[in-house]
Write a structure and sequence with these properties.
single chain; mainly alpha; Four Helix Bundle (Hemerythrin (Met), subunit A)
Length: 173
């Protein structure tokens, strides 16, 4: 039996975020091609939600990017970049994802050293304040939130006829 070496916090986060955000960019390309071919107003898809109390597709992408930036920054011990989250078009969402990938790609593996034990506090000073160890924050909160919002954006587009599948989500050719 082969035992794998320990995975670093950097390896468990940054490459995952970069890869899945790249796959999401490809999915949004297919969504843009879909609305172009069908002569659909793109905002029909960017504003689409399955139920009135659900966030629209554009916000699913924005929140996924927020989690990728926020989790990465907190684990690296740097300030979380602020973003307006006001994108309404596929082009603007693509730009947001590209900016997010550039930011998280600028973080060095050494910045994550010891982050598994670092205390991470979300929403400090509010009734929703939560405290985590770095590893619990990444594995039990950050990654699940990120994947939830990417998956929801994918599902909303798929539900509306965009021809994407699991291979697109996973980035398989």
């Amino acid at each position: 039996m082969t035992i794998s070496p320990a995975i670093s916090m950097y390896q468990a986060s940054i490459p995952r975020f970069v890869t899945i955000l790249g796959n999401l960019m490809n999915i949004l390309d297919k969504a843009q091609a879909h609305v172009d071919a069908k002569k659909i107003d793109p905002e029909v898809l960017t504003r689409y939600r399955l139920f009135p109390d659900m966030l629209p597709m554009s916000m699913q992408v924005q929140i996924a990017c927020d989690f990728a930036r926020g989790v990465s920054a907190r684990l690296a011990g740097v300030e979380v970049p602020k973003h307006a989250d006001d994108e309404t078009s596929f082009e603007e969402l693509q730009t947001l994802i590209a900016q997010t990938r550039r930011f998280i790609g600028s973080l060095a593996p050494a910045q994550f050293d010891g982050s598994e034990e670092r205390e991470i506090v979300t929403r400090p000073g509010t009734p929703k304040e939560k405290r985590f160890s770095g590893s619990a924050y990444l594995l039990s909160y950050g990654l699940p939130q990120f994947f939830f919002h990417v998956t929801t954006a994918y599902a909303l587009l798929r539900h509306n006829g965009v021809e994407v599948g699991k291979r697109d989500y996973m980035g398989l050719k």
